[in-house]
């Protein structure tokens, strides 16, 4: 079960149209980065999207990013 203790959210400006990204540390702690240049509603949806990646174990399933994003 995923809890808020498993990840931290950072809001930082990204260049271009990147909405967000998630990085997994060596300790399996997730850092979620949201583009602070985007409206709050878009950041919220991006956070939900990134959390789904964590819940779906997308970082350890061997699939490419392109395949994961197409699902």
Biggest pleated-sheet summary: 3 strands, mixed
Silhouette: globular
Question: Which band does the percent of strand residues land in?
Answer: 15-25%
Q: Which structural class is indicated by helix and strand composition?
A: alpha+beta
Strand order within the widest sheet? 1-3-2
- Rg, please? 12 Å
Distance from first to last alpha carbon: 22 Å
Mean pLDDT: 91
Q: Please tell me the total number of domains.
A: 1
The number of helical segments is: 2
Number of strands: 3
* Low-pLDDT residue intervals, each spanning 5 or more residues: none
- Helix % is 25-40%
| Secondary-structure element string | EEEHH
Could you explain the architecture of this structure?
With 71 residues, the protein is an alpha+beta fold. It has one domain (4-61). Helices cover 31% and strands 24% of the residues. The protein is built from two helices and three strands. Strands 1-3-2 form a three-stranded mixed β-sheet, covered by helices on one side. A hairpin with a 5-residue loop joins strand 2 (20-24) and strand 3 (30-35). It is globular, with a radius of gyration of 12 Å. The mean pLDDT is 91.
